[in-house]
């Protein structure tokens, strides 16, 4: 992953000028930065090394890979190193018109596209002598456009998940440049498919290891959902028995359905035993046919659930199925990128979220905030929670949303913003506009709101903002004065600790 050619450009003005025009790699533009502040979703470093004449920027990432971001909101890895990027730009100057080409398109089509874009450049300026001079000076071989297009295709496929670019202010992801790559479910299911194959081979070690590992068990059951075989009955029974250790999961219901689809009434005792594992499984599997049901009744029950909740096409599954499984496997960046793109798809459609079916949309925003928080991505959690809170219509939901937002802001170190959010909570309590908060003083919401006031007052005192901390302490004490005795008792220890810290500061 060398940058030898990049160093030569920086040392030789003549070479730098040739790279800038006609090949669109202008070192001087690096100092201007990109058209907006950007960052990688993965948090890795970015170094702007050049720009082009259309507002695009070339960045070098931590591993030496070169990321190109255009001014239209798309970005992608174009090479494994700065040297390879320069080879690409010199040998395939119309590379932006080739991002959707792959080796499968064939040599003739690739060469035709390369010739077309080069002819368009030649209509305005020279290219051939300049290319020969640069290649000689930088030590680059004369590579075919077909080879360079193949390299570009492979590089672009590496963009996700580790090199996804975000608008730093809003947190929105840049669009994909070039091929989309495999759907999320493919890498998520890979380990499950491998384990399913081992189980089918009768590997008894695998039977024990997969059954005892909750993550491997879940992924293997998902693999079995989309690759069904008549001979799987015994291994499905085995996984079903062990999935009860996780109580009422989606995969427990899936395993019960896959077993029930066989229509073997001999499985009814097992299904009822699973149902009676605990209260949650009794509720979640309450509709299992009763003992004495015939094969058709069992099969119809399983088929109905299969059609409504599962099926055989992984692309029909909610994104959350795959992001949860990705996160559980440690595929953090895969999960993060999928969640960011899901949030990007929801965020612009505020009016749509207010339609009668909106509760599903707004609930998903709340779920996204929790998902991002579990990933440790507080900026994206804040983004989802802000949108969720702004869409709430009852005073209760607004107060609860603002309180959660204040907590996330405090944990992210955004203390002034957290104070503003708590002010919005107090406004909702003071002027609710509906009856939803009429009992807030006697329920946990009131206690939670008071607790967040005290925690933020502590954080403000620790951060050297004694006056703001004292003001928030006064507001917290006033809230506690309105709480019922039961609600107030749970917050008194925190109140005393906060008062001692805040009054002793500044």
Q: Gist?
A:
By secondary structure, the chain is mainly α. It has 25 helices and seven strands.
Description:
The chain is mostly helical. It folds into 3 domains: 4-176, no CATH class; 185-315, no CATH class; 414-419 and 431-506. Helices cover 59% and strands 6% of the residues. It has 25 helices and 7 strands. It has helices at 4-11, 13-20, 82-91, 107-122, 128-138, 145-157, 185-200, 204-212, 214-226, 233-243, 250-260, 268-275, 279-284, 295-309, 319-328, 332-346, 350-353, 358-375, 378-390, 395-411, 415-430, 444-462, 466-482, 485-489, 492-503; strands spanning 38-40, 46-51, 57-61, 66-69, 74-79, 165-167, 175-176. Strands 2-3-4-5-7 form a 5-stranded mixed β-sheet. A two-stranded antiparallel sheet has the order 1-6. A hairpin with a 4-residue loop joins strand 3 and strand 4 (66-69). Helix 11 crosses helix 14 and helix 16 runs antiparallel to helix 18 (358-375). The longest helix has 19 residues, at 444-462. It is flat, with a radius of gyration of 29 Å.
Name a few traits of the molecule:
single chain; 3 domains; five-stranded mixed β-sheet; two-stranded antiparallel ribbon; CHAT domain-containing protein
Number of helices: 25
**Share in β-strands:** 5-15%
Instruction: Measure the end-to-end span.
Output: 53 Å
Shape, please? Answer: flat
Query: The biggest beta sheet, please?
Result: 5 strands, mixed
Average predicted confidence as pLDDT:
94
Count the beta strands. 7
Whole-number count of domains: 3
Radius of gyration, in angstroms, nearest whole number: 29 Å
| Spatial arrangement of strands, main beta sheet | 2-3-4-5-7
Helical fraction equals 55-70%
Q: Structural class, judged by helices and strands?
A: mainly alpha
Q: Spans with pLDDT under 50 lasting ≥5 residues?
A: 350-360
Protein name: CHAT domain-containing protein
């Amino acid at each position: 992953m060398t940058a030898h050619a990049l160093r030569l450009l920086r040392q030789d003005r003549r070479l730098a000028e040739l790279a800038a025009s006609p090949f669109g790699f202008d070192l001087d533009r690096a100092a201007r930065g990109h058209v907006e502040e950007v960052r990688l979703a993965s948090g890795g470093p970015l170094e702007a090394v050049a720009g082009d004449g259309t507002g695009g920027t070339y960045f070098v990432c931590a591993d030496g890979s070169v990321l190109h971001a255009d001014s239209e909101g798309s970005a992608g890895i174009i090479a494994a190193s700065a040297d390879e990027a320069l080879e690409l730009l010199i040998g395939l100057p119309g590379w932006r018109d080739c991002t959707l080409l792959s080796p499968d398109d064939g040599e003739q089509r690739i060469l035709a596209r390369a010739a077309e874009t080069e002819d368009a450049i030649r209509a305005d300026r020279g290219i051939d002598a300049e290319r020969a001079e640069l290649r000689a000076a930088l030590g680059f071989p004369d590579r075919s456009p077909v080879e360079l297009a193949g390299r570009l295709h492979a590089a672009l496929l590496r963009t996700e998940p580790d090199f996804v670019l975000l608008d730093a202010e809003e947190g929105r992801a840049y669009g994909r440049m070039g091929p989309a790559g495999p759907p999320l479910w493919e890498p998520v299911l890979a380990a499950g498919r491998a384990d399913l194959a081992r189980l089918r081979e009768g590997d008894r070690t695998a039977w024990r290891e997969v059954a005892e590992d909750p993550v491997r068990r879940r992924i293997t059951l998902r693999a079995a959902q989309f690759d069904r075989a008549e001979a799987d009955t015994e291994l499905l029974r085995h996984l079903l028995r062990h999935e009860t250790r996780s109580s009422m999961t989606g995969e427990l219901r899936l395993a019960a359905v896959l077993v029930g689809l066989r229509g073997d009434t001999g499985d009814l005792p097992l299904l009822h035993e699973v149902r009676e594992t605990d209260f949650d499984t009794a509720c979640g599997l309450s509709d299992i046919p009763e003992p004495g049901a015939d094969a058709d009744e069992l099969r119809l029950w399983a088929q109905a659930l299969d059609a409504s909740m599962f099926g055989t096409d992984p692309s029909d599954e909610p994104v959350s199925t795959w992001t949860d499984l990705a996160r559980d496997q440690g595929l953090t960046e895969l999960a993060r990128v999928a969640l960011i793109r899901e949030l990007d798809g929801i965020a612009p459609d505020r009016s749509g979220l207010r339609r009668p079916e909106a509760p599903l949309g707004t609930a998903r925003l709340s779920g996204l905030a929790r998902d991002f928080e579990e990933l440790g991505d507080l900026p994206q959690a804040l983004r989802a929670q802000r949108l969720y809170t702004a869409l709430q219509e009852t005073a209760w939901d607004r107060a609860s949303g603002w309180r959660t937002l204040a907590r996330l802001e405090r944990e992210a170190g955004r203390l002034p913003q957290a104070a503003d959010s708590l002010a919005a909570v107090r406004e909702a309590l003071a002027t609710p506009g509906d009856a939803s908060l009429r009992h807030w003083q006697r329920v946990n919401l009131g206690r939670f709101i008071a607790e967040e006031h005290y925690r933020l007052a502590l954080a403000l005192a620790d951060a050297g903002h004694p006056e703001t901390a004292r003001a928030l302490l006064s507001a917290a004490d006033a809230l506690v004065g309105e709480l019922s005795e039961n609600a107030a008792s749970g917050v008194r220890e925190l109140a005393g600790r906060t008062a001692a810290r805040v009054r002793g500061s500044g």
